[in-house]
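Colleagues,

Please find the record for the two-part complex below.
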Amino acid sequence: MSMPDCVGGGDGDTVLPAVTQKTPQTIVMKFGGTSVKDLDRIRSVAQKVQTERRKGRHVAVVVSAMSGVTNQMVQYCHGLDPEADACEYDAVVASGEQVTSGLLAIALGAIGVPARSFQGWQVPLLTDEAHGCAAIERVDGRAVKECLEQGIVPVMAGFQGVDKAQRIATLGRGGSDTSAVALAAAIGADQCDIYTDVDGIYTTDPRIVKRAKRLERITYEEMLELASVGAKVLQTRSVGLAMRENVKVRVLSSFTETDDSSGTLVVEEDDSVEKELVAGIAYSQDDAKITIRNLPDEPGISAAIFGPLSGAGVNVDMIVQSIGVDHSTNMTFTVSKKEEARACALLEGMKSEIRYGELTTSRDVVKISVVGVGMRSNTGVAAKMFRTLAERGINIQVISTSEIKISVLIDAEYTELAMRALHTAYGLDAKKED
Amino acid sequence: MSMPDCVGGGDGDTVLPAVTQKTPQTIVMKFGGTSVKDLDRIRSVAQKVQTERRKGRHVAVVVSAMSGVTNQMVQYCHGLDPEADACEYDAVVASGEQVTSGLLAIALGAIGVPARSFQGWQVPLLTDEAHGCAAIERVDGRAVKECLEQGIVPVMAGFQGVDKAQRIATLGRGGSDTSAVALAAAIGADQCDIYTDVDGIYTTDPRIVKRAKRLERITYEEMLELASVGAKVLQTRSVGLAMRENVKVRVLSSFTETDDSSGTLVVEEDDSVEKELVAGIAYSQDDAKITIRNLPDEPGISAAIFGPLSGAGVNVDMIVQSIGVDHSTNMTFTVSKKEEARACALLEGMKSEIRYGELTTSRDVVKISVVGVGMRSNTGVAAKMFRTLAERGINIQVISTSEIKISVLIDAEYTELAMRALHTAYGLDAKKED
């Protein structure tokens, strides 16, 4: 397949003019809520679609609801019943994407681009029955492909599908990214462009580190790890799906002029040319730290604590065990701030059974993670992180690692200091700001 | 079938308590936009549904969109393209009913009434392909009936269906009444209750004639004629469908406490006990009068005028031909004010061909109609109308009649005077106001 080198492999081929390509490139363009928030924005999206078509590409579009609309619908549902039936909740909240898919088709028609909307049930995009956060089971790409072959732009309502019983099901917040990747896989698209309100994936949060720089490429695994530890640009599920289905994803801004080299490309590791040691640094303040002191140092003590927590649906993230006084042991771990109260109540109730000394908690902690596929073959990444933090007098409370990620828990007041120091230490600072 | 006599035939049976009935009555309750305009109103509708269920009835519900929402959607569509694709327009505007059907199902669940929403495509309610004002071809009542048999309240989104190609189609403004009647026919419901913002059908407009009174019953044909000449309570199409399918329709208020004797019942002529000469008096200011003077009095002159008008889609309503000077003839007729300009332009263009003298128009006219099945067997109705108007010095410009209706075109400034005089003359004045 012929692909422009700026978005595809690294083969160095120059791009043939689109009109001479035998098989036109097929892309999926996905637009989020702020990109379709009013008629002017919808017209602007239509222009972007037309621009891609003029490059000779086949374009399928996926849209979110106008920003604010889904929240309004959720409020309606919960206003009537905080425990609203999930099927009905889905019928209500899916309406927002129905509106924008129809409106974008109209806006495209108005500038001479033939288009038609597809609701989830019309595609059909089949889901399981987990209403409210359903998983996609199968996307039947035939009708959408037929449209493309006829030169019509299919505009699919994101975030929604239909279950076996023909009830509308939604994919959970941010689900439109997943819809877009799933559609791209189903129709064999060459790329899935996610238009959003930022112009790509950054080495870290530019609000904290001014010298953060936009990445041209990032691997699926790095993106997955970054999304899982606080980076909010792409929904984790959509990245996982893109990795499994090998869909090239690009993140770019819908608010600026863009070309084929804009944004950040999320690709397989082999496609990533620049093998940086560390791709990005993320932080999360969503965790609370729980410490249990003076536990009996017995076999099975971890299971006695974490078994019941897991049974109660509390997700435990980072764990460290340390030696206490008199052959006792201490256990420190993190849970989501939302689940902290539930976890503590459970542990308090088990105090006599487990025979621990003291339970303390802290919410003034931040988890900082460095992520990069390069650390697979380089052992110095962790050492550099610990040394950099130590030089600034920052105490590491808990450490956890995965194959391509190192996370540390530190006092929240060192957040900015730690982020900037690490960004510089790993050589990520943007040159233009030097 | 056992029916309470207050809503059914005139057999004088006393009503058995619902719980002892072997076959529970099945009713369709339809709620318009003002009845579901916010969460409080939706909760109130849920209460009304529960009240009916407690009478031992099976209840299916049809809802409109929250008032204002459909207009907002139409504005969005036309804001992007005044000639928006009708399929896409339908996908957008049908979203309002999707929201209220889901919300009402949630509100019912919240008070312990099992319920589920049905979109048009889920029923399915099949339509033709005339998007924007589609006609219902078939309603598959099986899924809705299955719900009822399981004690679940089906809540159908009104105004919408699905065509053969699985595209969403809407039935045109006010189409939810038609949806409700069609559903009632499909599931063999005993009655279709249309809840609206008035408490029934009146002998005439109470804003003009204070002594207007609510009718307990009216026949389909009378309702059809009244709807066609200006009474706006029920959509004409829904009444026609009810007549063809023999669905008993009741119009009542969703803003007051109601019981089985509330509102107005629209029934077959045989079911109507009180055979009044005149059921109601309606008026319409939607028409313009066009007069063509000094036409050659030749055979075929009517065809020469009305053929082209009809070909151009201009609906001509009342027509009168009168003798002019020198063997010429004059032609006066009415068209909708919206079509007046188009009609005149067409006629001006044909001036040399038809060889008429002068074309004049007037918008200061009102069409007043008296409607009643009683006039089939009573020839005095028309005479009484002409005499009553003559006694007040009101000149009749054009007359048209049907089997159960007489309409006259008069100067608009006599509207109130004529309406009140006729209301009294036909003995329609409410006694309590005497």
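The two ends of chain B are 40 Å apart (CA to CA).

Comments are welcome before we finalize the supplementary table.
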